[in-house]
Amino acid sequence: MKKLILPLIILSSINTYAQNSYLDSIIENTNEYRKGMHDTLVNSAKGIDNFFDSTEQKIEGYNNTYGLIQLSAFYNEGEGVHFDQKVSIKLKLPKLKKNFKLLFESDEVRENVDFTENHTKNNSDNFNLALLYEDYLGNNVDFKTKAGIKLGSTLNPFIRAEIKKVIKDVKGINYTFSQSAKESVKDKLELTSYIRLDKPINDEFSLHNYYEYYWQSTKSNDSQLYASLYLVQRLSQKNTLTYTLGSNMDNIDSNLKMKRYNATLTYRHWLRKWIFIDTIPENYYTEEEDFKPMYSIKFNLGMYINKDSYRR
């Protein structure tokens, strides 16, 4: 019962806190600071763009430059609280070409295997510096490629490409097919394929089914399969609940044997349209623990630094 009460108390208190005048005061008093941060990102984008093309011309689009800072806290049953962070900065480069962005971001994490129980220490992620190219090829097909360097104790150059096809409204269901390939000096070739089915039910609910297959060339037995069924409930413009049933299997020391089940509740509340809080309690079962029920909870505080994050 205690495992249910704590998330419910937190969820019920968020709306009250969000309307607190103290929070309004903090947001108002830091308005110029957030504006200064966004101006710095925009000026950085202009400076890099002018390096490639120094001609004087009026260019729009720099204001779409943005940053995301996300702080996370993890608690896993029987362990202490651990912390992590995520940073993503995307600089628009319209002079170079409207499809290009310069990225500075935390090391990519495959969310489907980013389990709370794996966060057993406070982390300091490596970062990636990359150039991203995105293009729409027509017929509901999108293509993007990213090339850059993973910054850490050793430099790890990489290139990643993805092509995605969406087939809309087949008997009320939207289908998304994606294939990506990543080549890096350290991890060599990695392939990820996924299929997602999206079924809008009404204005409040939508049902989704997701399947992902991952393969890494440097490990002879490292094929991983993830499947999930999740229901999204839009409580309001500011509040969303996602109910997820998931399973993970791989062929590490086995032949695609089931390794983990989970039931997860994700609650996202937008304090403002540029700042959000996630509360994510989870009940999970792993082969390592003989499928004994375990409990974890994760909290995220995310803040976008963009043109909507300050009062002009």
Structure description:
The chain is 15% helix and 54% strand. It is built from three helices and 14 strands. It has helices at residues 2-18, 21-29, 31-52; strands spanning 66-76, 81-92, 100-106, 127-138, 141-151, 156-170, 173-184, 188-200, 205-216, 223-234, 239-250, 257-272, 275-286, 294-305. Strand 7 and strand 8 form a beta hairpin.
List the helices and strands and how they pair.
Blueprint: H1 2-18, H2 21-29, H3 31-52, E1 66-76, E2 81-92, E3 100-106, E4 127-138, E5 141-151, E6 156-170, E7 173-184, E8 188-200, E9 205-216, E10 223-234, E11 239-250, E12 257-272, E13 275-286, E14 294-305
Antiparallel strand pairs: 1-2, 1-14, 2-3, 3-4, 4-5, 5-6, 6-7, 7-8, 8-9, 9-10, 10-11, 11-12, 12-13, 13-14
How are the strands ordered across the major sheet?
A: 1-2-3-4-5-6-7-8-9-10-11-12-13-14
Strand residues, percent: over 45%
Mean of residue pLDDT? 85
**CATH T-level fold name:** Porin
Number of helices: 3
CATH architecture: Beta Barrel
Q: Can you count the beta strands? A: 14
Distance between the termini: 47 Å
Q: What is the number of domains?
A: 1
Largest sheet: 14 strands, antiparallel, barrel
What is the string of helix and strand elements? HHHEEEEEEEEEEEEEE
- Helical percent range? 10-25%
Morphology = globular
